[in-house]
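User: Hi! I have a protein structure encoded as tokens and I'd like to know what sequence might fold into it. I'm fairly new to this, so please keep things simple.
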């Protein structure tokens, strides 16, 4: 049985394909369109998934969509009545959106060329929950989903058990932790749905001087939390973009004018970021505590866009009493394509679950013959390397910056060792070199270390799987000199644990690097520059390589160098 999952409209369009309950492929449309966070219908991603599985559209049995328009329609009428007459101006816009989602159901069979498949609308937060729980190694777990908003749910406390996911409690509409963080992100001069990670990194350079103010905006209670919408442009049942952006005049009076994109960062901006991060941390810890009391379980799954906040994930593991934490490789909206398909497979059709660790390498790959033809046709100088892992380790030990493209592309926003830029993080200045020469991004942005599973205890007090680079944890003080360029200003690092079973070549490369240097950690960042998606093909990688300060590029066994290695 082939089940296609699709996410579109909003941001981060994507497609995923299941083959008999097994995840066969998953691709974000942005990687193929080369437009970051693109929201178009992911026809290219769908075709890529079908190609990887070796099937055609006529072979599809089920199609799962990431949102339920019927629930959205109920929210539309509920808000229209509750906030009338202010809601009148928004009713028409939201009705058009509902009709668009509903109308896609009729258009999709024509677009993908499948007429016999059955279609399913999966509620947005159930898709997030399924993307987390059904890819986790747990047979039973507490599940927390938090994002901007789905149909009208903004956060859900759930219990996953076997093939079932049960929502125990949910928060709706204006009570949105994701919107709160995104709106202040834009106020701080970064793009909504793209700059939240920048704010998380900026927070470490500030002090939470405005935490009391944010505690008034984001109020915790025994029942959970609420967001005071008077601090934002709330009008007739929805937020709108006003003179101050998404924040209201009240917010501007209290915290000052918004920062223009690209303007210098003041200490006030750093302190606002720190205060926002601290308020969100408190709310997430509070929700996890409620969920633990409701379920009594030791295992926690976190999904939704807020699960991309790796600092919070580390705190959830350290401070909530849960013994194990799982965050899927694509917890944001792209992952709802996979979640919708998994929900239909397991919760609707009863396909048996196979709990285990999901490989994130679910995207397209180019065979060595295809890459070889491209290099020859382009007239590019290269040499063939017998052992790319060992050769890369040698170059890194010499201080080189290396582009690394191997095998299938990752699914999700993190480069996990197949579409990566790598270097030796022992030199503290390497962070600035990467930000200026290669990534062309803000100097405060941190990088992450990749460490082989089994060697994590050398550098961290806690050894917990983090294969998708989902958790930020404190580095042991005595080991911080081993990789200062991959450690944040507060002594923490966003850890990626590398498993031999998931990525043997990348694992062997880091081990070979460790044998040479005594340091079993390499700096790993995504293979792209700021504002562009992670590279997908060898062609993408070559363009990025020659337009940045990288020294060498591996395309499978083929090595391209700007200087003699």
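Assistant: Happy to help. Inverse folding works backwards from shape to sequence: for each of the 565 positions I chose a residue that suits the local structure. Here it is:
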């Amino acid at each position: 049985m082939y089940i296609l999952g699709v996410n579109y409209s909003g941001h981060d369009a994507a497609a995923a394909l299941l083959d008999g309950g097994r995840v066969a492929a998953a691709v974000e449309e942005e990687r193929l369109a080369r437009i970051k966070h693109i929201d178009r219908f992911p026809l290219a991603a769908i075709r890529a998934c079908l190609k990887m599985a070796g099937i055609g559209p006529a072979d599809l049995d089920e199609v799962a969509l990431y949102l339920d328009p019927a629930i959205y329609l109920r929210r539309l009428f509920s808000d229209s009545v509750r906030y009338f007459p202010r809601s009148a101006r928004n009713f028409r816009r939201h009705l058009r959106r509902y009709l668009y989602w509903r109308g896609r159901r009729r258009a999709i069979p024509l677009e993908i060329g499948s007429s016999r498949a059955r279609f399913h609308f999966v509620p947005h937060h159930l898709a997030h929950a399924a993307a987390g729980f059904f890819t986790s190694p747990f047979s039973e777990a507490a599940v927390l989903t938090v994002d901007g908003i789905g149909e009208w749910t903004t956060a859900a406390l759930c219990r996953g058990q076997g093939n079932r996911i049960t929502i125990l409690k949910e928060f709706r509409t204006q009570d949105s932790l994701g919107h709160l963080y995104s709106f202040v992100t834009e106020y701080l001069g970064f793009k909504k749905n793209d700059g939240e990670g920048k704010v998380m990194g900026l927070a470490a350079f500030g002090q939470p001087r405005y935490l009391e103010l944010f505690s008034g905006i984001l109020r915790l209670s025994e029942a959970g939390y609420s967001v005071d919408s008077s601090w934002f442009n709330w009008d007739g049942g929805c937020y709108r973009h006003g003179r101050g952006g998404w924040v209201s005049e009240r917010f501007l009076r209290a915290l000052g004018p918004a920062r223009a994109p690209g303007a210098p960062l003041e200490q006030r901006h750093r302190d606002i970021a720190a205060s926002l991060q601290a308020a969100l941390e408190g709310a997430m810890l509070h929700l996890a505590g409620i969920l633990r009391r409701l379920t009594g379980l030791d295992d926690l799954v976190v999904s939704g866009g807020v699960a991309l906040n790796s600092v919070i994930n580390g705190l959830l593991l350290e401070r909530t009493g849960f013994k194990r934490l799982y965050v899927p490789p694509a917890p944001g909206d792209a992952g709802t394509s996979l979640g919708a398909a998994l929900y239909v497979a397991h919760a609707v059709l009863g396909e048996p679950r196979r709990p285990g660790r999901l490989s994130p390498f679910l995207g397209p790959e180019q065979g060595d013959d295809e890459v070889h033809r491209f290099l020859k046709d382009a007239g590019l100088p290269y040499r063939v390397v017998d052992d790319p892992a060992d050769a890369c380790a040698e170059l890194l030990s010499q201080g080189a910056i290396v582009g690394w493209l191997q095998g299938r592309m990752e699914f999700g926003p993190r480069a996990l060792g197949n579409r990566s830029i790598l270097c030796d993080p022992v030199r503290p200045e390497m962070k600035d070199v990467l930000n200026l020469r290669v990534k062309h991004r803000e100097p405060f942005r941190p990088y992450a270390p990749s460490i082989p599973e089994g060697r994590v205890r050398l550098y961290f007090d806690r050894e917990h799987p983090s294969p998708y680079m989902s958790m930020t944890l404190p580095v042991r003080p005595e080991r911080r000199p081993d990789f200062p360029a991959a450690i944040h200003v507060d002594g923490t690092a966003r850890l990626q644990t590398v498993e031999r079973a998931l990525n043997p070549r990348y694992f062997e490369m880091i081990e070979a690097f460790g044998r040479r240097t005594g340091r079993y950690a390499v700096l790993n960042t995504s293979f792209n520059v700021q504002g562009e998606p992670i590279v997908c093909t060898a062609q993408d990688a070559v363009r990025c390589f020659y337009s940045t300060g990288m020294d060498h590029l591996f395309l499978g066994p083929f090595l391209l160098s700007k200087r003699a290695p």
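A useful reference point when you look it over: The first strand starts at residue 2 and ends at 7. Feel free to ask if any position seems puzzling.
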